[in-house]
Amino acid sequence: MPLSLAVLLLVLAVTAVIAALGCLIDKSAERDERNQGR
Amino acid sequence: MIALGLFLTSLASKSDDLKRASLVIFVLIGLLTIPTYVSGNSAAESICAGGPKAPACDDAALSKALIETHEGVALLAFAAIVLTAAFAWLGLWQFRRISHPQNWTLAVILLLALFALILVVRAANIGGEIRHPEIREAREIITPNVHFARRIGAFVLSRPWGWPSLETLHFIGLSLLIGVILLIDLRMLGVMKNVGFPAIHRLLPWAMLGYGTNLVSGMLFFVASPEQYAHNVAFVWKLILMMLAGANALYFTVFDEAWILQPGDEAPLSAKAVAVSAIVLWVGVLYFGSMLPFIGNSF
Fold first, then answer.
1. For residue B84, what are the CA distances in angstroms to B21, B96, B117, B206?
2. pLDDT tens across B83-137, in order?
3. Out of B97, B164, B169, whose CB is closest to A29?
4. What does each C-alpha distance from B215 to B30, B113, B210, B275 come to in angstroms?
5. Within a 10 A sphere around the Cβ of B85, how many other Cβ atoms?
6. CA angle B287, B165, B41 (to 5 degrees)
7. Is A34 helix (H, G, I), strand (E, B) or coil?
8. Nearest CA in chain B to A19
9. Residue B10 per-residue DSSP state
10. A29 and B164 in contact by Cβ < 8 A?
11. pTM for this predicted structure
12. Residues B60, B43: Cα–Cα separation, whole Å
């Protein structure tokens, strides 16, 4: 596998994990805020 | 230990103020851990020429294996403390949004803090043995050689994709961090006044994920090649400004002045001053980061 492709795949994978974590924290807080509002 | 004691007391007494105070202390300890870990490599190079990478120390009383073991355990302790600080910050953010941290956050903080304490005690014990052969002789047999940091460093350097991947992630983390921080600071300075602060506050975890990404990638650079950074004046300034900027971000998480800003509200002078200082600090971090090879001796 060419070096540039390996770097791209690794970076995309880590970025996807970061994005998933961000969404998880955000959704979790949104759910709790909604529950608190009830 | 003080932060953990305070945290346990807050859990037992169910005091939100104590809880908030202990979480702030955890975050500040996390920031202070960065120079503490980094200074270990400078100390290693001072007492043993070539640092952990030297084949052996000139002074026969010093154990090179113990220096490497101490470095490895210290790296694990550093990771545990920084993770504790990251979850403590998340707890503070949740305090703001839902007026109490979620239970799973508190459980993770407790476990990580206990784990970090054990690792710090272990690293301190091994650190003490480096210069004291009299206690070392009795213990050397039971002290395992955990050259963890050296193995991680060798891994990063030996893989052709290691360094370029970390560089790319460092830039992604930087964009995430600076993007969100600038949004907050510009709102404080009067841009996008029609947006209330709670809406922007919701983006803060993304900035912290960027900070975390850069801390991990940056530390991997350091562990892989400490000699490029340990005596680099640009790196020292970058660390100082990074810690101050991290502490600065606490203002927007903990204090009320920014939180109460509704759409159309003008930020108070103190919030504006913090916003200006944040921009100056982050520009400083960017400047010294890119000047590492020019002011200092990297690369």
1. 14, 19, 11, 17
2. 999 999 999 999 888 888 888 999 999 999 999 999 999 998 888 888 777 666 5
3. B97
4. 11, 19, 9, 22
5. 29
6. 60
7. helix
8. B206
9. H
10. no
11. 0.88
12. 17
What's the pLDDT score for residue B100? 84
Digit-coded pLDDT (tens) for A2-19? 888 999 999 999 999 999
Nearest CA in chain A to B203: A26
Handedness of CA B13, B18, B24, B29 (dihedral sign): negative
Q: Nearest residue on chain B to A23, judged by CA atoms?
A: B206
User: DSSP assignment, residue B191?
Assistant: T
Of B98, B164, B209, the CB nearest to A33: B98
| Interface pTM, i.e. ipTM | 0.87
Helices within B48-102 (DSSP H only): 64-98
Which residue in the set A6, A15, A21 is minimally distant from B172, CB to CB? Answer: A15
Q: Strand runs (DSSP E) across chain B, as ranges?
A: none
* Span between the terminal Cα atoms of chain B, in Å: 39
Question: In the structure encoding, which two tokens stand for residue B56, read together?
Answer: 């052996």
**Annotated domain spans of chain B:** 1-146, 151-299
Token pair for B240: 């100082």
Residue numbers in A near B98 (CB within 8 A): 29, 32-33, 36
Q: What angle in degrees, to the nearest 10, is found between the helix axes of B233-254 and B204-224? A: 160
Residue ranges in B99-132 assigned as alpha helix (H): 103-130
